[in-house]
Predict the structure.
Amino acid sequence: MKNLLPLLALLFIAGCSSGHDGNNTSTPSNGNSPQASSGDKPLVVFSQANSQDPWRKVFDATTKAEADKHAADFTYEAQDASGKSENQNNIIDTFMVKNPKVMLVSPNDLSVTKAVEKAFDKGVSVILLDRDISGEKYTCYIGGDNKQIGREAGKYVATKLNGKGTVLMIQGLANVTATKDRADGFMEVIKTFPGIKVIAGDDCSFQRKKARDYMESFLQKGEAIDCVYAHNDEMAIGARLAWDANPKGKAPLFVGIDACQKEVVDMIKSGKMDATFQYPTPGAMGIQVAAELLKGNKPKERRIILPTVLVDKASADKYLTDNPNLEK
Ligand code: FRU
């Protein structure tokens, strides 16, 4: 993430007077001047899907740290929806009463689309982070390319399995774009390897405990697998812990996504996991885009896509050096 920030200077069109649909902070459709949002400073709010898992802890901390640098320019407020879409809908509606200029939203799932679009329709600049909504009413999206990450994972697994074997795919939260894209990208590649069979595992909601419980019951069925592909690292760790509690012969490969925790990189180094793909947290850039929007500068790209990187045994040490502030 840190090496992406200098790019920001190139990412903006200065002094634009309107967004893609006339929705912007210079001439907001709600009729307020950018300086007069809440008190004398404009208000930037952040609705986070949940603040409980490791990836989101990094996400929250980096967003706040960046917002602190802009304390003179705007007031920043964040709220955690604890993984509940109804909470997030209420939080967004409550934020709206405070008349924010910019709203950062990391949607819990697609069912928060309406609340987000309502905010956008009222003239708030909406920056979607990580997960998408189902409509087009937002100012800017910042996040990884989940489909591409799925494809990269597919290539990695197919190569490691020499084009032959059975993969258990443990799925993230249903009704979430990241889940669908990580599955679709993976399947797109795997379908070109007729020797690889994929078992569609349960929705384990991106949670370690759920994946551990699921893997425990899956292993009891005695079905042989050569690889676990989990839609995030927490679930890959959960599956590995279940395997370790009841190992049956040669361990399958374990592949996850996020690479935000030292625990995962250490597991890769010790051979407990095989690979993960970095899913950079988008909050710091979200704050920078918010700051620019408040100055009337719109991002050149409506969708800002953050790159991924493969972390495996060969790259683990370099990854730790390049990313010294991972979660424990
Ligand atoms: C956290 C998380 C991450 C994942 C992202 C996908 O809630 O599950 O682990 O990469 O959300 O939206």
Observations:
- Residues 16-37 have pLDDT under 50 and may be disordered.
